[in-house]
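REQUEST FORM: STRUCTURE PREDICTION
Request ID: SP-0412
Submitted by: Lab K.M.
Chain count: 1
Length (residues): 281
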Amino acid sequence: MSLRWLGVSFAFTFALAAQPAGATQDVACPEGQAIRAIADKTAVCVPVPPPVDLAPLNAAISAESAARKTADEELPDRLDVTVLNGTYAFTGTALCLSSSRGFNDDLTPKIDLVQGTGSTIVNASSQSVNGVRTFDGNGGGTVEATFHVINYPSLFYFIGIPPSPPVVVGATTNAGVATLSTVTGTFTYEVNADGTLTIDDDALTGRIVKGGQRVGWITSTRNVPKSFARLGKDLKAISITNDDVSVETAVLTHPTDATMHFDTPRICHRERHLLKLKSSG
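STATUS: Completed
RESULT:
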């Protein structure tokens, strides 16, 4: 057994020693090329592309950094309405709580617990919005938006016998409804020395274009809380929300008979995210 293993080992060593010196010969490629593979002692070469010139990209990055630094340094010295001059696309959401009889001082719906004093209808709604807001650089502007609204089923609060005939809310029942509305109008705004922005949207009106039994009716809101934001960097992105929690009034008016309208007190929370598209002029 040991002799056979010795024979194998000796034969393997002899075979290695018998290889010609050319087996260790170096292979190479011409300058500007690299080895892709080696076959039969011959290198397969491929051209090496020239190095990429990163100077233009580095210059653009440096210029952008310098511009942003300059904008940040200049911002505190020019905080007035002129810094907002251009068109912004925006999206956002809102949640509202409505009460047919209004709200108490503590912002709870007015619900009487004495029989015969009436009933209160309370419901919640959610909104999503997308649109375009244009600042004129002089404290005013215009806005166009589309609202997707879902009114959730209403709750009736009453003492004793339910109202007769049944109270109708929204479309024909209190089961809830979804609507689509378009809104246009003007707004005013202020930019304060501390870098804060306030927007007054109290002059917007819209029209229901889809959903429910009141397509074509005119929508508006009175006493909307102003929106608030804190400005920063290069003013390309702004996030705003209501600056207060207070009671506003949603108004729904018949398209041809202004005497036919529904005024509903409500409390809303809104947020909007603005992204600059272009400057004016």
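NOTES: Residues 1-23, 166-172 have pLDDT under 50 and may be disordered.
Reviewed by: T.R.
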